[in-house]
Write the structure tokens for this entry.
Amino acid sequence: MTTRQTSIDEDDFQAFVDGQLAPERRRAVMAYLAAQPGESARMGDYRTINEGLHQLYDEVLYEPLPTRLRIDHYRGRTSWRDRLQRWFGFGVFGLTPRLVGLAALLVASGAGGWWMHNSRPPVETPGMTFARQAANAHLVYVPDMRHPVEFGADQQANLLSWLSERLGASIHAPILQEAGFELVGGRLLPASGKPAAQLMYEDLGGKRITLYIALRWSPGTPAQPEGSVIYWTEGQVALVYWIEGALAYALIGEMDREQLFATADTIQHQLDLPVLAPPAEQTATTEKDAT
Amino acid sequence: MTKSQEKPTGNGVSDTERKIAEQIPRLRRYARALLGDPVRSDDLVQEALLRGLSRSHLWQPGTDIRAWMFTILHNIHVNNQRQRHARAEYQELVDDQPEMATPPSQEQSLEIRDLARALQLLPDPQRQVVLLVGLEGMNYKSVAAVLEIPVGTVMSRLHRGRESLRRLMAYGPPATASDEDGKRHMSP
């Protein structure tokens, strides 16, 4: 309860968690939360809930559809089916799936998770794929002492314009000095047949973190709200990722969960600022003001 | 949809039908989280799908088909709930225990299982909002439109729903459990 008494209310907090705040408002909430560890923790819990929901249910998106939920099943038959439906309710179509469902449940509860995994096609959400690729890239290049990056921070303008050109979207290198990290440089990487970018940062103690950037996955099924940050562990690596505009971002490093979130907030905050256009020759790619 | 005589083009699915089909995975995810039970939730989606298809001519091209389909699903759900309640009162018997429906899988951590259970303990209206926002990623206005409630109600249900989940999962300090939701606006 220090200086700030801006009228931040509960709605702002919820919108903050959901990435539905305008940039200035977000900044105000962040400033408020910085002085309120209790409230900050509460926001963390809400985020955990959002992530948990995705972890629990996102795989439904990628489960093969049962026949009765496939549109070609109804093609040209809707009217009589409609009529049947009205007469019999779900008795006709509901019974078999019910039994199948029960059987699946028994198998699953009897044999545990792994059996369930084996009995159906593996489900990996695009978010999971993205997180895995980001983690792998981190593990490969972070220990590299000789060539951790293709372009160093001294050629930042070149690096960013090159990456922007290859990804087809404007890439910025956020400034993370507040968190103690300086840009080392970056590189271009392959990701499922498309280009992705990795930016590497280092602190004074030589600890490295990476920001992995790729094009967002199919807009038809975004597995998460725009801007909302998801925490993920991939092997021994912890990371946070989020989608913003045309791009998906992952931040990876040996930090605890709170630090990852705080750094992600800093990055999101900076990406909101139009000022952050990379220096020099960048002309073709001026975006970010109309997400 | 009374187009059964129409010669199908391509794979026989019209543009609107295809757009409806694209929504199915999301409707399914939402229904699964809302009801907890895979079969009942697929029933709900199927019903929404049938209704959507039979009324696809009512959808205004250019408007948000996702919101349209979610509204249809929501209306069916509310209707079903009403019937279920009536039936349950009549028989004085609650035969469905949603917790049983989510099979305990060993990969899921304790917290995640707790969340699934806690979610089913929320009042239905709160669960809807928490899911449409947190899982479906809808903006508050769309949620208000789908559920046919004011945005202010969306916000208060969201807040209450999240707080309940948090308490149910024993995150928050139990001491704060007393002050209910009287502190919607916090100014020290």
About this structure: Confidence is low (pLDDT under 50) at residues 1-10, 92-108, 171-188 of chain B. Chain B touches chain A through 67 residues (CB under 8 Å). The longest helix of chain B spans residues 65-91. Chain B is about 65% helix and 0% strand.
